[in-house]
Amino acid sequence: MAERDEVYHLSMGGAGYVWPRSGAGGSKSMSVIKPTTVEVETSLRLVAPDATALPVRASLRYDPADPYAVHVLFHAESAGGEAVGWSFARELLVTGLDEPAGIGDVRVWPWATPRGDFVALALSSPDGNALFEVPRSVLVRFLRRTYVVVPRGRETDQLDVDATVTRLLAGR
Length: 172
Prior knowledge:
Layout: E1 7-12, E2 18-22, E3 28-32, E4 35-47, E5 53-62, E6 69-74, E7 84-89, H1 90-96, E8 106-113, E9 116-125, E10 128-135, H2 136-149, H3 161-170
Antiparallel strand pairs: 1-4, 2-3, 4-5, 4-10, 5-6, 6-7, 8-9, 9-10
């Protein structure tokens, strides 16, 4: 899949229109229903140890309910194969666009090739390691769209700490 063939989805928490809402004292106020998720379907390249690269279908996903994280879902090519998902900090991708970032299981760094500018995404687990080339332009567009949904530095506005504490205490 060529870079220009990415598919972007913005899921709306409604039709995306401005709806009148009753405020205090019965007055009407306007509220904007914002997109709830950003999802990009694209093709990454899995870099093999011999430096050959294989295309891999993947989805990049951002959900403001988990405002600090991005999720990558690698799609299996076989009909019965299961997709594999990874989650990591949105800020890690941002930093990795311009300089090496991350330690441990997820590392990201700029990677220039004769084919253009890419970002290397290295994933490690007890089951193995994988190195992917991600078109830099895909990540930049994806991240810009996530910042429309939740601006940088406003992630805590999306968190409902009271509900989280209640849910955690209910599990005791």
